[in-house]
Write a structure and sequence with these properties.
single chain, alpha+beta, outer membrane lipoprotein receptor (LolB), chain A, TATA-Binding Protein, 2 domains, 13-stranded mixed beta sheet, 6-stranded antiparallel beta sheet, 32% strand
Amino acid sequence: MAPNDSAETNGGTRGTAVGRRKAARYIVPVAVAGVAAATIGLVPALASTGDPDLPKITAQQLIEKIAASDTQQLSGTVKISTDLGIPSLGGLAGSFAQNSGDSGKGDSTADPQSKMTELASGTHTLRVAADGPDKQRVSILENAAEYSLIHNGGQVWAYDSKTNQAYHSTEDRSGTGKPGHATPAPEGVPATPKALAEQVLKAAGPTTSVTVDGTAQVAGRDAYRLLIKPRQSGSTIDSVTVAVDAKNGVPLKFTLLPSSGGKAVVDAGFTKVDFAKPAASSFTFTPPKGAEVTEADDAKAQQKTDGAKGLGMFPGAEGLGAEGLGAGGQGSKDTKVIGEGWNAIAEIRTPGGTGLPSKASGDVPAQAQQFLDSLGDKVSGTFGSGTVFKTRLVNALMTDDGKVYVGAVTPDALVKAANSAS
């Protein structure tokens, strides 16, 4: 009989159990903008061989088990599938490049700032390895090619075998954030179930229901299923399920379902996992002969990230803070947060107070304008008028007077927030 616990979190959970977490980070700590939650998402649910019969556990105990996990060594294979419902860009990338006069020549295809954002859509297979907080490796397996990020001590290497290009940076451990240096990000790129689960658990509080919803087997490991649901209406998120290793508390699988129904927006899970110490060779890298190596300090264009965890496709989405999926932060001086919990909406004032460029003004190529129109719906209210851009997870309203309202909420909630702020 699978355990079924109805205990729910309270406001103290986030400040105690999650605050004590000390599990190792399992992904290369390079500051890379993600897409939600990002970021993010992993393949369809793994077939179960039958629910294991495990001792009963409360939701509070299971959260504490995750927080107390001290597993620092692992290797395995992760499947990632993300379906945000965003129309394909098709040939627009080339069109933008032509119109801007930038062919992209000279940019390294190994640069992690752009490469890792590929995890925001489609299905991907990753090989991951970790040996404590200073040694991690993530490899994206492609057709007859592989892209790898290797973090070893103060060195970070990225290599794209398809183009034989490498990218090298050194960690800035002084906290100065010097340009071109890879300062480890606390959440990093959310490429594993653990990283995804930690982001969601940060938002667990009075607006969240957390229960134990039975058991499962993932990658041959017995696991409890932690079910996380918003108590509020109006969120685009229906639920998040995290399969937690019954023995060591490591999240093995992460599934985010949208309130609109249909397939998962994010489904992340190990297909193979081993908690033995990985080989030291997993974290060493020497550029192959003939490889083009780009040093971060010498990169032509300074990489810019908005710091949003899982919301990188929207300008200024950093207003939602590290809590990403809805805990709500203070944001920058040009950003404020409306509401709380899963219904938090970031209000961002764009530079210059202008709305979207238009074809009529000559600022946007016709093909690009067609793409923007396909994404957005015109709306109006007491705030004036604007355009709502929709995905299955995050929606954004850009008003004609240059404000942006963004959150994991319905378009109606965005319009209501804009009206109340006008």
